[in-house]
Amino acid sequence: MQSQRFSFSVGFMAILFAVLPGFAVDDGTQLDETQRLLGESKQNQIREMLKVADFGISFHGRVIDQYGKPVEDAEVILQLTKFSPNPDSFFTDVEDCPRHTDKDGRFSFSALRGRNLSISTINKTGYDDENMRVGFGGQTSFEKKRSDDQKPSTRVLPIPKSDPAVFIIRKKGDTSYLMAGDEYFDFIIKKNNFGEVALNGSRKSPTEPAPLFWPGFLVTCTTTENPPGWAVTIKGANAGDELLRSDKVLYEAPESGYQSQLTFSMKRTFPRDILECQVVLKSMKPVTYSLANIRLDADSEGLRVSSGISINPYGTRILEREVQLGQFEDLEERLYAEARAAFFKGENPPTPDLKKLIAEEQKKEAAQQ
To answer: Which of 271, 283, 264, 276 has the alpha carbon at shortest distance from 307?
Structure first.
């Protein structure tokens, strides 16, 4: 009986496929045709849906530097996403729409139709958009309001002239040779095998034998009970050292605002409590400025404090590395040796003419080719 029912089912399905348009059980020709028609129908639906998704866009923005000053004649590249009749591009076209800022750093886009736009780059000689920041949480893409579940901080189109989206790009400053973070601290203090907390202690960098003077840190960690966690104190490793904490990227050491030590409170929590900041270390004998990227990482098991440090050995407040030096390893090694030799004497090395040195290295390379 089971085999008869199965035979009947197969026969019934064969009849059903034969009478339904687009279905066949012989060579599959009508099935392919039906699939093609369904595909075309779905494609047409997508085309019409995206076609009506475009709307008139009005966008006003402003470009300023890290000091809050307007950036004039900056080229702002906007990418407009809009409808395209071409099915090969999924009915979507992305168009580059360049604009230039006026004397107040303002620019605008209007009389445009699309479904969203984004700011891809901002170009200006002497400026760097690598760390481009935007108000409202770093937002660079904008669309109209979709639903009430969007974050309150998300700006939606249109962006009015009275309240433009503000973009911050960095004005490049002087550069210097910076001694890369060869001296750093990275340690973990954890619970011991008996389940007891043994977190009190301190550590000083550098850990290896150092010259008479070398920028570094003294880090002290102690446990706290209320709330459960750790208190971290960071001082300079040399007498008279001062520190300054910054939560933004620094390319020049500030003139004031330093203190003898920095303190941080970290929670013993799960999954983890993380704090990252930049610390400028000002040493006095000799005067040097160093930049450290401090990271404190705490969880229910322990605490890690780590940092890399970049040292300007020349006594100037420049904290921006001359990137071209990375192309000339021998030159960097020579500058490092000169700085280290001066530190053995408790002195600053003479400030080099980097442009001249780089030009000489480039000339040597050209002669060898």
So the answer is: 276
